[in-house]
Amino acid sequence: MIEHKTFANGFRYIEISNNAAHAKIALQGGHLFHFEAVNQPPLLWLSKTSFLETGKAIRGGVPICWPWFGKHPTDNTLPQHGFARNSDWHLLTAEDIDAHTTKVVLQLQYSVESLKIWPHAFELLLAITVGEHLSMALTTRNCDNQEFTITAALHSYFAVEDISTVSVSGFADTSYLDTVTGEEHIQQGIITIDQEVDRIYRQVAYPVSLHDQRRAVDIDASGSTSAVVWNPWVEKCHAMADMEDDSYKTMLCIETTNALEDGRRLSPGQEHTLTSDISCSGIVMGRVIL
Ligand code: TA6
Q1: How far apart are CA 59 and CA 51, in angstroms?
Q2: What 8-state DSSP symbol labels residue 79?
Q3: Hey, which residues does 93 pair with through a beta bridge?
Q4: CA 258 to ligand 1 centroid distance, Å
Q5: Which residue among the candidates 255, 261, 271, 272 is catalytic per the annotation?
Q6: How many Å lie between the centroid of ligand 1 and the Cα of residue 96?
Q7: How far apart are alpha carbons 272 and 139 in whole angstroms?
Q8: How far is CA 100 from the centre of its chain?
Q9: Catalytic residue among 34, 113, 155, 244
Q10: Distance in Å, CA 101 to ligand 1 centroid
Q11: Residue 55 confidence (pLDDT)
């Protein structure tokens, strides 16, 4: 079932329910802000104090960072993570493929406003498939007569039961830029989180997996050789208006990206698709299946 909903403040979203999962997608940002498979706890973390209002970025779910990831490379007055997450997307199609699978395609195209801050003609398509797995595919088309380069992220916030018990596998021996210290490192073994972590991993061999006490979340990707792992920890969390002080304990971002050297240069007419396919194993309502 696909329902079109609007909050009293005008914030519009699509609510999807099928036999496998339940999801909510805001038209602002093409932003998936809820995904919950049947008999599982929510996959995605959403801040209890997140804005769900026009013009304000949502804290949680899967923000689309595009056409630049992080700070703009040359102009600090431009918004962090680009403009796609705060733009109004157009719903192209929404269809139930079968009783367990629903597919939604959203579109963002260049406009007078976008050309003022990023002078390129483009089409961006986001396909979100809600089923036993969650699949997202972000396609960038160069509609310009000159080449352009993008960096991007499917900035996924995962819900975890207790950050102190979380481990992330799949990154061993991978090099990363620690953006907290500016240092380069090689990952030794699994990732655990006991301080602020903000890292861009290079040459990632997907799939990677997030484990907590109640489940394993497997993240596969294509069109990407990079990934970001982020937890703001105590002080940054406290400093953010749209996060509660102890929020860092129940979230971890593992982001499928085109970051650093993994940015993509597109010629006129060329397109690039970044995908993320996310599945869970090992749980039924909190019980680990052996
Ligand atoms: O992906 C990690 C990151 O770039 C962090 O540096 C952190 O600032 C985060 O994204 C959130 O960014 P935002 O602009 O949503 O506050």
Answers
A1: 7
A2: P
A3: 105
A4: 15
A5: 255
A6: 33
A7: 6
A8: 23
A9: 155
A10: 31
A11: 87
Please tell me whether the overall predicted TM-score, pTM, comes out greater than 0.90 for this model: yes
Q: Has 155 been annotated as catalytic? A: yes
CA of 169 to the centre of ligand 1 (A): 22
Query: Would you say 149 and 270 are in contact if contact means Cβ atoms under 8 Å apart?
Result: no
Cα within 13 Å of Cα(240), Cβ side: 23
What is the rounded distance in angstroms from the CA atom of residue 214 to the CA atom of residue 41?
A: 9
> What are the start-end ranges of the E strands in 100-222?
101-109, 122-130, 134-142, 148-150, 152-154, 157-159, 167-169, 175-178, 184-186, 197-201, 208-211, 216-222
Place of tokens 């394993």: 216
Smallest Cα–Cα separation from 257: which of 116, 36, 64?
Answer: 64
Asked if residue 199 lies in contact with residue 183, where contact means CB atoms within 8 angstroms, the answer is no
Residue of 49, 56, 81 with the most ligand 1 atoms within 8 Å of its CB, for mutation: 81
Please report the domains of the chain, with CATH numbers, ordered by start residue: 2-289 (2.70.98.10)
pLDDT digits (tens), the chain, 290 positions: 999 999 999 999 999 999 999 999 999 999 999 999 999 999 999 999 998 998 889 999 999 999 999 999 999 999 999 999 999 999 999 999 999 999 999 999 999 999 999 999 999 999 999 999 999 999 999 999 999 999 999 999 999 999 999 999 999 999 999 999 999 999 999 999 999 999 999 999 999 999 999 899 999 999 999 999 999 999 999 999 999 999 999 999 999 999 999 999 999 999 999 999 999 987 544 444 54
Question: Which atom of ligand 1 is nearest the CA belonging to 179?
Answer: 6
